[in-house]
């Protein structure tokens, strides 16, 4: 099936959306990206883009910090995204990748005096951690501190850190990494936020623990509170506490809600998917497919009916 990209202010065939080798961004990682999903609901023959506006709001906050410019308002970017995904016309789960980057054809490490360009492409992509439950290893790599490379910005450059952690985890026989903050507290996975269940409550690292503030994370906090009456505490978590959690799961646009069964070869709880994790997983899957009327405002339909 032909695929399309939005690039240089128009929708074009994907293979025509290319950049020059001198593009500033290629050399310095000076880009900000998003990972968004359109979730296919086969019953309704509709794809729903999950919390689209929130993704562009996060990108806009990152742009403010990195002195970058988005080409249009958030509402316009949402419309462009829907138009592109509709044009691609996939009848399955789709991953959407917007990227804003320094496009000047000159070198020199800086953020100032540069032009910016913006692109989006979309492609079919099933669950990222494609297992019922995953094993994790605590990484020897730490998240960068806020005044090293701010983790709240989803910048392309910072993902060297995530890639180091992910590859180390896979080479050590785990499915995913758990990365600690520079201060030794639990921060997040290589592409997910992390939650623990302790005595019936959810605990998750706070923004000051060097996390990317996930949109799935926020959605799970809301679903837990509104639908299960479960409160989430955002605070520092020690490594020892991580090993003692009754349940643990990862959240992310790509990974959805993924249960963790083992951390550093220690079973989490009894090593099976815990009851709170299972309930949240079920609620989240329904919410992203537009099957929970209360959360329909999170879901942007792609196809006009
Ligand atoms: N942390 C990191 C490092 C990530 O790459 C992601 C994926 N974007 C997340 C957390 C989860 O964020 P979200 O739920 O917004 O996808």
Descriptive account of the structure:
Helix 2 packs across helix 3. This protein has seven helices and 17 strands. It starts with a strand and ends with a strand. It has helices spanning 24-28, 52-66, 74-88, 159-171, 215-228, 239-244, 275-288, and strands at 4-7, 10-13, 31-33, 36-41, 46-50, 94-102, 116-124, 134-142, 176-180, 186-189, 193-198, 201-204, 232-234, 247-252, 256-263, 266-267, 299-301. Strands 8, 9, 10, 11, 12, 13, 14, 15 and 16 form a nine-stranded mixed sheet that branches. Strand 8, helix 4 and strand 9 (176-180) form a beta-alpha-beta unit. It is 27% helix and 30% strand. It binds 4'-deoxy-4'-aminopyridoxal-5'-phosphate. Residues 35, 162, 188, 191-193, 212, 214-217, 251-253 line the site of 4'-deoxy-4'-aminopyridoxal-5'-phosphate (PMP).
Shape: globular
Mean pLDDT: 97
Highest-level CATH class of the largest domain: Alpha Beta
The share of residues in extended strands comes to 25-35%
The CATH architecture assignment of the largest domain turns out to be: Alpha-Beta Barrel
Query: How widely separated are the two ends?
Result: 22 Å
Might you state the CATH topology name of the largest domain? D-amino Acid Aminotransferase, Chain A, domain 2
Radius of gyration, in Å, reads 19 Å
Please, how many domains? Answer: 2
Q: In percent, how helical is the residue content?
A: 25-40%
Structure class: alpha+beta
N-to-C SSE string, H for helix and E for strand: EEHEEEHHEEEHEEEEHEHEEEHE
How many strands, which pairing sense, and closed or not: the largest β-sheet? 9 strands, mixed
Ligand species: 4'-deoxy-4'-aminopyridoxal-5'-phosphate
Low-confidence stretches: none
Kindly state the number of beta strands: 17
What's the CATH superfamily of the largest domain, by name? D-amino Acid Aminotransferase, subunit A, domain 2
The total of helices stands at: 7
């Amino acid at each position: 099936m032909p695929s399309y990209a939005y690039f240089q202010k128009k929708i074009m065939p994907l293979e025509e959306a290319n950049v020059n080798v001198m593009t500033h961004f290629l050399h310095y990682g000076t880009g900000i990206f998003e990972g968004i999903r359109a979730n296919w609901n086969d019953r309704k023959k509709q794809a729903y883009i999950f919390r689209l506006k929130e993704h562009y709001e996060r990108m806009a906050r990152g742009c403010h910090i990195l002195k970058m410019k988005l080409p249009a308002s958030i509402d316009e970017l949402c419309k462009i995204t829907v138009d592109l995904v509709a044009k691609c016309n996939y009848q399955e789960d789709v991953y959407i990748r917007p990227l804003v980057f320094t496009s000047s054809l000159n070198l020199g490490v800086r953020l100032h005096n540069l032009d910016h360009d913006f692109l989006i492409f979309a492609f079919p992509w099933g669950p990222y951690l494609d297992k019922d439950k995953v094993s994790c290893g605590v990484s020897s790599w730490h998240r960068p501190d806020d005044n090293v490379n701010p983790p709240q910005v989803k910048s392309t450059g910072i993902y060297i850190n995530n890639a180091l952690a992910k590859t180390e985890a896979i080479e050590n026989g785990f499915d995913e990494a758990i990365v600690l903050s520079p201060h030794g507290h639990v921060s997040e996975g290589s592409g997910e936020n992390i939650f623990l269940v302790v005595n019936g409550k959810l605990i998750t690292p706070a923004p000051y623990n060097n996390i990317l503030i996930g949109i799935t994370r926020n959605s799970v906090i809301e679903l837990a509170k509104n639908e299960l009456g479960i409160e989430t505490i955002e605070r520092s978590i020690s490594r020892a506490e991580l090993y003692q959690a009754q349940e643990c799961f990862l959240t992310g646009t790509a990974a959805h809600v993924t249960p963790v069964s083992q951390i550093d070869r220690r079973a989490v709880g009894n090593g099976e998917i815990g009851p709170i994790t299972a309930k949240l997983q079920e609620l989240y899957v329904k919410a992203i497919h537009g099957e929970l009327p209360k959360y329909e405002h999170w879901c942007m339909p792609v196809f006009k009916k």
